[in-house]
Prior knowledge:
Blueprint: H1 2-22, H2 31-34, E1 36-43, E2 52-59, E3 66-75, H3 77-83, E4 88-99, E5 105-108, E6 115-121, E7 124-131, E8 134-142
Amino acid sequence: MKKIICLVAVVLMIASVAFAAGKMKFTAKDLPGLKGTWEGVVSFGEFETGGTSPMKVEILNDAVPVKAKVTITNVPELIAQKFGSQSGQNVFENDSGLITSQGTIMWAGAQGAGFFEVSKGENKVNFWYFFKGMKGDATLKKKK
């Protein structure tokens, strides 16, 4: 029994190292390629109504701090109330994006009011956010 537990532990350690080594990370040299418009569908996470809306993220510059503009269309009324915003189209701008030690780019809200973050994927970026107790994610592809 102890041998099985040790074997499982070793396999898990090897798998985690292989996963960490294969994870793509942003560096400052990646920022010019990140600049532009990224589109996808954002989920409203674990909220009762769930749901999704079209989303556009515009990366406006290619240097740190990274400037971004997020546009979410068709935000449902119930979700808008939770966000403290209006239903329909909402636009959020932030000019404080920093490359984290994990190789993601994170934009933090004022006074800890939430954050959104992107990680590097194969021909895409993975987006996730936490804001006013809500969390969700999106997979975004660069608009040509």
